[in-house]
Structure formats: C-alpha cells, structure tokens
Amino acid sequence: MTVAVASSKSKNITSAVDISAVQAFLPCETPDTWVEAALANQTTMLIDHANCEKKAASTAMTLLYRYFDRPELLHKLSRLAREELRHFEQVLAIMNKREIEYIHVTPSRYAVALRQGVTAHEPEKLVDTLIVGAFIEARSCERFAKIAPLLDEELSHFYTSLLRSEARHFEDYLRLAQTYAKRDISDRIAFFADQEAKLVLEPDSEFRFHSGPIRKENL
User: Which superfamily does 32-211 belong to?
Assistant: First the structure.
C-alpha cells in the first residue's frame, strides 16, 4: 500500500483518536520519505521502537529521582513510566512472535540533539527537559498515526492503540513545564520547535524511529 492510498485510512485513525493538539504543537509533518523508509525497515523500526519505550521509561524515572519534592511531577511521571514499560513489553512480545532478535542498534541523533539545547541551570533546566519530553512524545504519537494505516493488521492495531497514551504523555510533559516555569514558555517552545523541525526534515544516514528522511544512497 502506498502512502497516498493510505491517506483516507490515516484520517479515519486520527478521527477516532483526536491528536489535533499534537499536530498543532509539532512544527512540521513527518515526511512521506520517512514513512517509506519505515515500511522498508520494519525490523529496525520495531527494535528501535522498543528502545524508545525503554528510554522514555528511564527518562521519567530519572526525573522522579532528581525532582522528588514535586508531587504533581511524581504523580504524572510515575504513571508515564509504568505505561512506557508496558509498551516496551508489548513491542518485545510482537518481536518474539515474529522471531525478531532484540539486538543493539545505535540511537538516532534526535533526542540527544534536542537535549543539547537544555539550559544548564535550574529551574530552567527542568522546564526545558519537560518541553523536550513533550516534543518526543508528540512526534512519536504523530508517527504512530502516520504509519499505522500502512502496516499489517496486528501492527496497525497496536500502533493505533498507542495514540491516546502518547498524546496524554505529550500533554502531561507540557503542563508540567508550564507549571514549574511560572512564566510564559512560548519562547522556549519555539526554540525547541525550530530544532525539532530540522531533525525531522534533514536527511539521516540510518533509519530510526525518530530519524529524518534517509539519504538516497543509504536506502
């Protein structure tokens, strides 16, 4: 199934699960060239998806330990960490069923590059970290919706089932950032939006779940 043919199915998915806030927050849409690379590299996509879920849980847990005196953060991120680990287990189960070995793959530059813009001092460091978390969760949600209509029934159902939780995670991170900033954070959101757009639109040498389009010579 081509990306163009799947457009109506994608609309059905996003209408069933409202991700309009996610789409409005992100600075750009995932390019179709990334979707095409994902379809051609589904084994790598699943392995890296598992890594992303594990890293998301780890990030939430790190924040729980570092900012243990913030009750709202503890409540939101403890729940998020449990959900991310559950998703990790679900991806592993699908991989096992398909006899896909969980091997090491190098991480994409996406999250690392975004975090390079995080301010070094508090409380701005926490606020920036939470904004970065919002972008990562929002992009994951958008990509699940983008690719789900093109996958086999099992993966399509699974990725569609993740939309609500990923959209909620994005909202949780953004609300926490706004809460602890105690000021307008639109300038920081705009800063990271600019960085995020470059990472999504500029070509990458290797396909990963959060990579940009793959250079033609690497396809």
Answer: Ferritin, core subunit, four-helix bundle (1.20.1260.10)
Query: Which of 166, 168, 172 is closest to 87 using CA atoms?
Result: 166
Q: Which residues contact 213 (CB under 8 A, 6 or more apart)?
A: 31, 33, 34, 37, 201, 202, 203, 204
Place of tokens 């500029």: 202
Asked if 145 and 10 touch (Cβ cutoff 8 Å), the reply is yes
Report the C-alpha gap between 83 and 91 in whole angstroms: 12
Q: How far apart are CA 168 and CA 82, in angstroms?
A: 14
Q: Token pair for residue 109?
A: 């530059």
Rounded to two decimals, the pTM is 0.93
DSSP line for 2-25: -TTTTHHHHHHHHHHTT-HHHHHH
DSSP secondary structure string for all residues of 123-140: THHHHHHHHHHHHHHHHH
pLDDT digit string (tens) for 67-97? 999 999 999 999 999 999 999 999 999 999 9
Domain residue spans in the chain?
A: 32-211
